[in-house]
Design brief:
The complex is a heterotrimer of chains A (168), B (771) and C (286).
Chain A: E1 2-9, E2 12-19, H1 24-31, E3 50-53, E4 56-59, E5 72-74, H2 87-94, H3 104-117, H4 123-129, H5 141-159
Parallel strand pairs in A: 1-5
Antiparallel strand pairs in A: 1-2, 3-4, 3-5
Helix pairs in contact in A: 2-5
Chain B: H1 8-18, H2 34-38, E1 54-60, E2 66-72, H3 74-78, E3 82-87, H4 108-115, E4 120-121, E5 127-133, H5 136-145, E6 147-152, H6 159-163, E7 189-197, H7 200-205, E8 209-217, E9 229-234, E10 240-244, H8 249-260, E11 267-271, H9 287-297, E12 301-304, H10 307-313, E13 320-328, E14 334-346, H11 353-359, E15 369-377, H12 391-409, H13 413-420, H14 439-448, H15 450-453, E16 460-469, E17 474-482, E18 488-492, H16 500-512, E19 519-523, H17 540-567, E20 574-577, E21 580-583, E22 591-593, H18 594-599, H19 601-604, E23 608-616, E24 622-633, E25 638-649, H20 656-675, E26 706-711, H21 732-745, H22 756-770
Parallel strand pairs in B: 1-12, 10-11, 14-15, 18-19, 25-26
Antiparallel strand pairs in B: 1-5, 2-4, 2-6, 3-5, 7-15, 8-13, 9-10, 9-12, 13-14, 16-24, 17-18, 17-23, 20-21, 21-22, 24-25
Chain C: E1 2-4, H1 9-18, E2 23-26, H2 32-37, E3 45-48, H3 53-56, E4 58-60, E5 66-69, H4 74-79, H5 81-86, H6 88-95, H7 100-103, H8 108-114, H9 121-127, E6 131-136, E7 139-144, E8 149-151, E9 154-155, E10 161-168, E11 175-182, E12 193-201, E13 207-215, E14 222-223, H10 225-231, H11 238-251, H12 262-285
Parallel strand pairs in C: 1-3, 2-3
Antiparallel strand pairs in C: 4-5, 5-10, 6-7, 6-10, 8-9, 11-12, 12-13, 13-14
């Protein structure tokens, strides 16, 4: 059964057609051709498909596309804005917090959701928050360091008046 | 240039004459592919799309062992939207003279039967047919319409049972290799390997203390987060384009060509970014199927494995059983080692048991070693390489025995290893004499490290273990092009799975004397660069780095020649430093920057470009020592890793962050292997945990920070002193964690994984024994 | 598959009553979606109840109890400070389900109706003496939570019924609950065994009400009445705890499966129940 859905993706109005059984992950990757969000397992066990929907961190493989009417969806493609990397993205690069990079989009979204809620997490908080994002390459060490390093920069940026189109 | 350097001095000489600066190597710049990866723009195997593509899916056996009586795809083919279905009947027979290259694995007949089963299915998940349809739903529906009649056969999963004389046989024509005389009866033992060094009988006669123990490990999967994926387009001309997730585009081309009996030149493979491999993507599963489907349907075909298929049908590494005896004198000198190692090969021969025998005790100078290895067939997926294949499990046994020895003789475990440490000049048990190694230094660094000297809390245990891996060189190609604006393009033919793009750029920058930002790195497809062996064996920074360095040196020579032409002087009068050519006689007043020489390249002879192909020799082996502290909840058997330090001789850390990353990643994989990862089967030989919920890889909250210590003992056979670093880190953790847990528990754990259930059981058994 | 997202209770009940083929109630979907999205037959009708206000509210009642909508997510539940303060055990149990991503979606109702023997929120929910408000095409009824799960994967609900909300009774002073589970990893795991304890102590610190429920050691959660009785009238001294542990082990009816052996489950249930009882006791004294 094909349905038409209107949502907002990375701050832009977006319309797509989908089947009722399509997941948000499938629609992002196939219909909208936004391949930044990755599929690792399809069952919510690896976090590679993490996106932020209506302010909450979710696995896109466990959300039906038809639920997304009027939803605000944020993916890794929307993390940087106005030609500038988000502090989290920069911190990941500076700390070598990625190797193969397949888990990186999901982790960045998870980290963003963390810092939105807990601006100054300690190491334990970070580790438990990102426990839903598997990484097989890095052993998590540099990822945790990157997130903690980015936290103050993210807080500072969030304290500034918002610029239209910029995602903080 | 395809010559092997016959004299290791040649390479060093070439490097030395240009005196690469050390401005970039050793620093930590942002990797070239980094921005793409953090913005979601990097393209992995499943991200590539072509209009009109079909979706391909695989039909797999639900049985662990069965004869295929009938495979009827007609109903599936008749489903609207299904465009092609292929089975083993569509695979060509491979002629005998093409089955193996010089008798070395892989055996392409086995590989062919593995990607589409012939008369028998040998494991649950064994592929039987592949379907291409207009969308995923149709393809899935088509799978349900494929009609197969099976004659289910008794199966064997367990190593010991498989080796029994009356075990169900996977292959009626398998007569164990390596036994004389050749056995008359077929068995599941594919081969027997013997490694003998010295005289163990004499050795044990000198021992004051002998310890013998049995160990076991379970198959574990590489656990890459990205499932296998490819997009294949066979054009009407017969030319085939493949975009895929792989550790080696040339390997994909070669394997597909051999399996399908088509010319190499007809296939072009574009390596996408790869979402983890660790050895598991050094073979092909989907690409040949996609080629057949694309050819049959006339359309591009996309295939992506489900997570369950990844676990069921792609190689884990072998489970093992090892029984090893170690003899030492009271002062701790190990005088003899003897043992048997049995590894599961899975459905087809080829476990890394030989490599296990070779590496297990390689950190030590032991005069007498005899290890026998058995490669055993079982109804499980065909094993595939996993980071230092064969070494971690063998090292687990060896390092546990060393720990038991240390306890028995009341010697500090690091001290025991120091007394037996291999040094330069030590001959390994497999015949190679070690040179320029830094093993002893890792032990000394461990001993001096604050971690080793920190006090332990209640119910905590500390374990140490060492490890070794050969590292390889191999065929590698690199091209360097100087663009007219002076920017530099470095092209190689090996996928970047650990950050190698950065390392290549850094080495090129230092040889050329330019800044890192001036260098671009491209990983080329099989039609755009000369052959390169795949990414594996910890070889890229070493071997491809060698090719890049040589190419850069040759470019420098060319730049000098062009400057000399412009100044109309002899080339000896031109020096090259810091990216600038100088006329020596001018005292610095006459110079040309790279960009200037590049801008006038058309007038001085044309584009400035060099391509080097070589077969890198002189790879330096790697050694490591790890320290692990665990906290044990004695009532539940649950283990928490509270502190971990990895110390490794890394040769030369081109980009220290990425070397650290390899050490940390390998250590955590090893921790998962030691504590919680295992394949679990039911009584029908079906995998119970083909997913990340019950196949338990470590999550972020399971592990602490992994501290690293990089010890640099340069490899003189590489222009920058590089040794491979990627595989060694997974070798010590099994022993380090097991030793820590055993000490915390007060009883020896000899079977992996040390899940809470297993530890609880061991604690109960030990308590009963004490009464 | 038809997807509907009704906005009122009545609409949900009508849709359930009128359905001819298979129908599934959908809240978080963390257990449901992987089943049919992977290609296995989807239901003919999927009713998304998340837009019905009664299923998404958390309300404190005048006399002290709580109403929790069945489609409240774990995230919502753990963000409710008062609920967390009154019911630390139930809320921590809910919080343990999966990752943050799962917590954004997984619901109390879903966890109960999925009826897995290892469900994390169920033992604590039963121990809290909660009841369910059930609505269907025939009207409404109320049932104690412990009557809902009939066998692994099955509830007593009719095809045309669904759980609207849960009612948690008012707390007596000096009451607290706790939940503990055993998983090999720190997160992202299914319990090998678990225990929930809900108790009240009097002014002298003596236990005068106690409910103990065990998870993953039987086909359905085990209400450990004989064990709870041992704690009554005690201050959880050493001898009482030993007897308590032994009784817990005796009440387990676990199986051996890929996650753990029966023997292991039996042994550690005792440990978990004891530790949970101690935690609940210390919380109640505060």
């Amino acid at each position: 059964m094909t349905t038409s859905i209107h949502a907002s993706v990375n701050g832009e109005p977006c319309q797509f057609q989908c089947e009722t059984t399509d997941t948000l992950l499938k629609v992002l990757r196939e219909n909208l051709r936004m391949t930044g969000t990755k599929q690792g397992c399809g069952t919510g066990d690896c976090g590679a498909c993490s996106v932020i929907m209506n302010g909450e961190l979710v696995c896109a493989c466990l959300v039906l596309a038809v639920e997304c009417g009027q939803a605000d969806i944020r993916t890794v493609e929307g993390l940087s804005g106005a030609g500038q990397l988000h502090p989290l993205q920069q911190a990941f690069l500076d700390n070598a917090a990625l190797q193969c990079g397949i888990c990186t989009p999901g982790l960045l979204m998870a980290a963003k959701a963390l810092l939105d809620k807990h601006p100054q997490p300690d190491e334990t908080q970070v580790r438990y928050w990102i426990a839903g994002n598997l990484c097989r390459c890095t052993g998590y060490d540099k990822i945790v360091r990157a997130i903690m390093e980015a936290a103050p920069a993210v807080s500072r940026a969030a304290a500034l008046p918002a610029v239209t189109g910029e995602v903080l | 240039m395809n010559e092997e350097p016959t004299n290791y001095g040649d390479v060093a000489e070439v490097a030395a004459s240009n005196k690469p600066s050390a401005a970039v190597v050793g620093t930590r710049p942002v990797r070239p592919d980094g921005v793409d990866k953090v913005t979601g723009r990097a393209r992995f195997g499943a991200d590539m799309q072509l209009p009109g593509s079909l979706v391909g899916m695989v039909f797999r056996s639900p049985h662990a062992h069965a004869r295929l009586l009938k495979v009827d795809v007609s109903a599936a083919l008749a489903l609207p939207g299904v465009k092609a279905i292929v089975t083993a009947a569509d695979l060509p027979e491979i002629p005998d003279d093409q089955a193996m290259d010089k008798g070395q694995p892989p055996d392409f007949r086995d590989m062919s039967a593995n990607i589409l089963a012939r008369e028998k299915v040998l494991y649950e998940g064994h592929a039987i047919a592949a379907v291409a349809a207009i969308d995923e739903l149709t393809a899935r529906h088509a799978l349900t319409l494929i009609d197969v009649d099976y004659a289910v056969l008794p199966h064997v999963i367990d190593l010991h049972q498989a080796m029994e004389p009356d075990a169900p046989l996977l292959n009626d024509h398998n007569f164990t290799k390596g036994i004389k005389p050749v056995p008359k009866k077929p068995s599941n033992i594919a081969s027997r390997y013997e490694q003998v060094h010295g005289d163990v009988v004499a050795g044990f006669a000198q021992a004051d203390v002998i310890i013998e123990e049995e160990f076991s490990t379970q198959p574990v999967h590489q656990g890459y987060i990205e499932p296998h994926a490819c997009l294949v387009n066979v054009r009407p001309s017969g030319r085939t384009d493949i975009w895929c997730s792989t550790q080696g585009q040339f390997m994909v081309r070669a394997y597909c060509a051999r399996l399908l009996q088509i010319p190499l030149a007809d296939i072009r493979v574009f390596p996408m970014e790869i979402g983890g491999g660790f050895g598991g993507k050094t073979t092909v599963y989907l690409e040949p199927l996609a080629i057949l489907l694309s050819k049959r349907s006339g359309k591009p075909v996309r295939m992506e494995m489900t997570r369950a298929d990844v676990f069921k049908a792609t190689g884990p590494t072998s489970g093992s059983y090892m029984r090893i005896k170690i003899g030492a004198q009271n002062d701790g000198s190990v005088v003899a080692v003897e043992g048997v190692l049995c590894y599961q090969a899975g459905a087809y021969p080829g476990s890394p048991v030989r490599l296990g025998c070779m590496t297990a005790f390689a950190p030590y100078n032991i005069p007498n070693i005899k290890l026998i290895g058995y490669d055993v067939l079982v109804n499980r997926p065909k094993s595939a390489a996993y980071r230092a294949p064969g070494a971690p499990m063998a090292s687990f046994a060896a390092e546990s025995l060393m720990d038991m020895l240390a306890q028995r003789l009341d010697i500090d475990p690091l001290e025991l290893r120091l007394r037996n440490a291999a040094d330069d000049g030590t001959q390994t048990s497999y015949g190679v004499t070690l040179k320029n190694i830094g093993y002893r230094q890792t032990l000394e660094a461990a001993r001096a490290h604050p971690h080793y000297n920190a006090p332990l809390g209640p119910d905590q245990g500390r374990g140490v273990a060492s490890g070794f891996w050969f590292n390889i060189g191999g065929q590698s190609s690199a091209a360097i092009n100087i663009n007219q604006d002076g920017s530099v393009l470095v092209t190689t033919g090996t996928p970047d799975i650990g950050g190698s793009r950065a390392s290549m750029a850094m080495m090129a920058a230092d040889v050329l004397g330019v800044g890192y930002e001036q260098i671009q790195v491209c990983i080329a497809d099989t039609s755009s660069i000369a052959h390169s062996d795949l990414t594996g064996g910890s070889r890229v920074t070493f071997a491809v780095g060698m090719a890049v360095s040589q190419a850069a040196s040759a470019v420098v020579e060319e730049l000098r020649r062009r400057a000399a032409l412009l100044w109309q002087v002899e080339v000896e009068q031109v020096s090259w430093t810091g990216g600038v050519a100088s006329l020596i006689a001018s005292g610095g007043s006459k110079s040309l920057a790279l960009a200037q020489i590049a801008a006038s390249s058309a007038e001085t002879g044309g584009p400035i470009a060099v391509e080097i192909s070589l077969n890198a020799q002189g790879a330096g082996p790697g050694f490591a020592t790890h320290i692990c502290d665990v906290q044990l909840d004695k009532e539940t058997g649950r283990v928490t890793v509270v502190r971990y330090t990895a110390i490794q001789d890394v040769g030369k850390a081109i980009h220290p962050s990425y070397v650290e990353g390899q050490m940390q990643g390998g250590a955590v994989q090893g921790i998962g292997w030691a504590l919680n990862e295992a394949y679990l089967y039911d009584e029908n030989g079906r995998l119970l945990n083909p997913g990340f919920l019950d196949y338990r890889v470590p999550v972020a909250s399971d592990v602490p920070m992994i501290d690293t210590v990089l010890i640099e003992v340069p490899n003189p056979r590489h222009p920058f002193g590089v040794k491979g670093v990627g595989e060694v880190p997974i070798v010590p953790p099994l022993g380090a964690v097991a030793n820590a847990v055993s000490r915390a528990a007060g009883t020896r754990l000899c079977d992996l994984p040390m899940s809470p259930t297993a530890i609880h059981k061991a604690l109960k058994r030990a308590a009963r024994r004490r009464r | 598959m038809e997807y509907r997202a009704p906005r009122t209770l009545a609409e949900v009940c009508a849709a359930l009553g009128a359905a001819s083929g298979t129908v599934k109630v959908f809240a978080g979907g963390t257990d449901l979606l992987p089943r049919f999205v992977a290609g296995v037959n989807p239901p003919a009708l999927l009713i998304d109840i998340k837009h019905v206000p009664e299923t998404r509210e958390i309300r404190r009642l005048a006399e002290g109890g709580f109403v929790i909508g069945s489609a409240c997510s774990g995230g919502q539940i753990n963000a409710h400070t008062e609920l967390v303060r009154s019911w630390p055990g139930l809320t921590e149990a809910m919080d343990l389900i999966g990752s943050v991503q799962i917590q954004s979606r997984a619901t109390l109702g879903g966890n109960l109706c999925n009826a897995s023997p290892a469900a994390d929120s169920v033992p604590a929910l039963i121990a809290s003496r909660a009841s369910c408000r059930i609505a269907g095409s025939d009207g409404e009824r109320e049932l104690p939570v412990e009557d809902i799960i009939v066998s692994p994967g099955r509830t007593c609900l009719r095809q045309d019924e669904f759980i609207v909300s849960f009612f948690l009774p008012a707390r007596n002073p000096r009451s607290a609950d706790a939940y503990l589970r055993m998983t090999p990893r720190t997160e992202m795991d299914i319990a090998i065994a678990s225990a929930a304890v809900n108790l009240t102590v009097d002014e002298q610190g003596v236990v005068n009400e106690c409910h103990v429920v065990l998870g993953a050691v039987g086909p359905v959660p085990v209400y450990a009445l004989p064990a709870a009785r041992i704690l009554l009238g005690s201050r959880l001294d050493e001898e009482v705890r030993q007897r308590f542990r032994r009784q817990i082990s005796a009440l387990c009816r676990p199986i051996s499966d890929k996650r753990g052996s029966a023997e292991y489950r039996t042994d550690i249930s005792a440990v978990l129940a004891d530790r949970a009882a101690l935690t609940a006791y210390n919380r109640a004294l505060l």
